[in-house]
Write a structure and sequence with these properties.
Blueprint (H helix, E strand, L loop, with lengths): L5 H10 L5 E5 L6 H11 L3 E5 L1 H7 L1 H15 L3 E8 L2 H10 L3 E4 L6 H15 L5 E6 L3 E4 L2 E3 L9 H11 L3 E4 L4 E2 L10 H11 L3 E3 L7 H7 L4 E6 L1 H17 L6 H22 L2
Parallel strand pairs: 1-2, 1-11, 2-3, 3-4, 4-5, 5-8, 6-9, 8-10, 10-11
Antiparallel strand pairs: 6-7
The chain binds zinc ion.
The site of zinc ion has 6 residues, from loops.
Length: 280
């Protein structure tokens, strides 16, 4: 089974009555089976996203080979997406390795430059049937080294979003509508009006970053207002580390390391299943 791009995986999700697809950050290769288990148990396709930090740690090819192999053996339609990347040569590396979707993040640039660079990535991606996510506005918090302080959060405007999508022809757009990266205590407040207006003006699937910090009610509403991709990163990491702290503390050094990791992976499966249930 080859990997699916975002448009293809969204279509499969919708055929299975999901309004949106979760895009889950893989933090280490050990976590991978937990993702597939959750997809199987919920009869959901799977979107796995990789930060450039994780891609450099594990290698782009290893990720493509491992994800493709499990997608086939577990019979789960899967999209492999490169998360936040502002380096076009790293995006090209991911494309060459076999990623089926990428994000070019030019949100820190002036609008003109963001549009210009995103267009370059879209032109690279189209002939290869790879989908491209762009970002407009600055989403707060920190994700893999990219930090935006609270005072620098910049909400996406309807006019900019319309122009950005028309001129770049991106497949999906990440919007800043109140969510924060890395938030796992306290909850963000989504600006639903802004979200609805951006969706109506652009007509493309919108992406919600910082999905860990969104309340269940807000999430259920957002997926009816144009959000078709929800990024969840921090929550799996928090659960995994929390379980590992516990099992490593109690275990003996000659226990198989596998025994320490299985409870952590079970917790990650649970997180994915709970999030996926919100997208129905
Ligand atoms: Zn993000």
């Amino acid at each position: 089974m080859s990997l699916y791009n975002f448009n293809e995986i969204l279509k499969i999700s919708q055929e299975r009555n999901f309004k949106a697809i979760g895009s889950f950050n893989l933090h280490c290769i050990e976590m991978l089976p937990a993702f597939f288990k959750a997809a199987q148990k919920t009869n959901s396709p799977l979107m796995i996203q990789i930060s450039t930090g994780t891609a450099e740690y594990l290698g782009y090819r290893l990720l493509v080979d491992a994800v493709r192999s499990l997608a086939e053996s577990e019979n789960v339609p899967t999209c492999l997406h490169l998360d936040h990347c502002s380096d076009i040569s790293a995006i090209e590396t991911a494309m060459n390795a076999g990623f089926s979707s990428v994000m070019y993040d030019g949100s820190h640039l002036e609008l003109e430059e963001n549009i210009g660079n995103t267009r370059i990535v879209v032109e690279m991606a189209r002939p290869r049937n790879i989908t491209v996510e762009g970002e407009l506005g600055a989403i707060g918090g920190s994700e893999d080294g990219k930090a935006v302080a609270a005072e620098d959060i910049c909400f996406t405007t309807v006019e900019d979003a319309k122009r950005f999508v028309e001129e770049t022809r991106v497949d999906m757009l990440a919007v800043s509508v109140g969510t924060v990266h890395g938030l796992y205590t306290g909850k963000a407040q989504i600006q639903h009006q802004r979200l609805q207006e951006i969706s109506a003006a652009t007509g493309v699937p919108l992406v919600l970053h910082g999905g860990t910090g969104v309340s269940d009610d807000d999430m259920r509403l957002a997926v009816t207002e144009g959000i078709n991709k929800v990024n969840v990163g921090t929550e799996m990491n928090v659960q995994w580390v929390d379980q590992c702290k516990n099992t490593f503390e109690k275990g003996k050094v000659n226990d198989s390391v596998r025994k320490f990791l299985i409870p952590a992976n079970n917790a990650v499966t649970q997180v994915l299943m709970e999030k996926i249930a919100l997208f129905k």
